[in-house]
Design a protein that fits this description.
By secondary structure, the protein is mainly α. It has a domain of 78 residues. It is 49% helix and 2% strand.
Length: 184
Amino acid sequence: MVNRIIEVLKMPASIVFRKVVRRLQKNARDTIEEWWARVLGTEISDRRFLHLLGVKNKEESWIRIFRGNLSERSLFVDLPDRSYKALEEEHLAILNFAERTIQHKFELLGSGPVKVDYFGEALGVEGNQYKMAPGRRAKTEQLRKIVRRLPKSFCSNYDPIDWHTDFKSGYRWSENTWFGRIRH
């Protein structure tokens, strides 16, 4: 902290002023955004969602749009140049990846496969390992919130992701902290 103060005192006043103004602007934007989300919610309507996808009218199938985009980037576009064995291996790799995704096992930032849930214990990063998994009560509360929006048949075997936990270190942020206020 002292080093930071000394560093700031060595800066020209114009730069310090600009940095202070930027920080105040960011705090104001975060405050307005947080208030807006708490008052109006963060959900979007189906109509807005389709608009963001580029669907021009209700009759146009957004599934067709996705299929079109997918076929442009498909692994199988150059079928004649590939062997059947290579295609089969890619097919199995895709199925394995899909299965891990359904199980909420992700591999991010060189972590190796990690299950992100309300019970997980992180391996730690740079000597920091936090044991902050919230457990069954938090999972049950999250499921209650999900059931309000989705069919119960979907939620019966669903294992929610704990979006507030850093899966590498195990650190868990408060659900009440607005993302713009998280210090990094």
